[in-house]
Amino acid sequence: MDWRKTEIIFIIAFLLLDIFLGVMFLNKQATNDPDKLGNDTLQDHLKTDNITYPELSSKEVYGEVFTADKVTINEKDVSNLKNPNDFTY
Question: Which of 11, 29, 31, 7 is nearest to 19 (CA)?
Fold first, then answer.
C-alpha cells in the first residue's frame, strides 16, 4: 500500500474538515451576536417563527394576574370525596 497517497488523502480530508468547522463556527458566532439579539422585540421573534396572534390593545391594564371564583363547599361535596378526613375547611 502506498502510504504517501494515504497521507495526502488524510491531509486533504482533515483540511476540508477544518475549513467546514471554521465556517460553521463563524456562522454561529454571527448569529449569536448579543447586540443583535438584544435589539429584537418579542413581536419580531414571533414574526420570525411565523406565530400569529390577534391585535393586542395598547391600553394599560392594572389588576391581579390571577383570578378565582369563590365557591361554597357544603357537606354533600365533602361526603363525595374519596377520603373526607383529608379535606380541611
Answer: 11
Cα distances (angstroms) measured from residue 68 to each of 63, 71, 77 = 13, 9, 19
In the chain, the amino acid numbered 67 is: T
Mean pLDDT by 10 residues, the chain (89 residues): 90 97 88 64 83 83 78 78 64
Quote the number of domains for the chain: 1
Question: Domain residues for 13?
Answer: 3-86
For residue 14, give the 3-state DSSP assignment: helix
Three-state DSSP class for 55?
Answer: coil
